[in-house]
What we know:
alpha/beta; Metallo-beta-lactamase, Chain A; 7-stranded mixed sheet; 6-stranded mixed sheet; 6 helices; Beta-lactamase-like protein
Amino acid sequence: MEIKNGVRLLRGSPNTLIVGNYVVDPGQPEDRAGEILSIAGRSPVVLLTHFHADHLTATPNGAEVYAPWGEELFVASVRARLFFTHGVYVEGAVYKGSDIQLSGVVKPGEKIGPFEVVALPGHTFGHVGYYTEGVLYAGDALFGEKVLEKYGVPYLMDVDMFLSSLDKIIELDPETLVIGHGPLRVARGELRNW
Ligand SMILES: [Zn+2]
């Protein structure tokens, strides 16, 4: 679906944001890659909010991929990713993904394609969001009610960072907020009540 001129959203868990050939968080499962290519075209540029496998498993083969600065090793290597997520290399992990050849890293404050990179750490240390035309893709910097009901607490590496990232999102006051898992979007003004 189209959120606004040229900003498309592919629903899923996580949701995927697509602007032109730029794809934020391809998500999972692997065969979602085909759907992504049909929207973004044959030479996608993939931008990741963080290294978690459920956000990158559907990265199309041959895509140009950018990891958030500081998390590039975990994006590139499935072994490093699993070690860091679970503390062991578990073959049977639900979300695993594969090794990914990176084209580069993105840092908060930088611009890439139509997006501005916003630091939103807490869920992971290097977690970033992507902002364009009043739309903020916040990845796992926020969780929907369903996720919180299921897991009780959100997965966080640093609670203080997570809370200041929430403040930053409120301050940024996006017209449309898209989060990784959960409701499609939150309208302006509703955010404070979360
Ligand atoms: Zn995550």
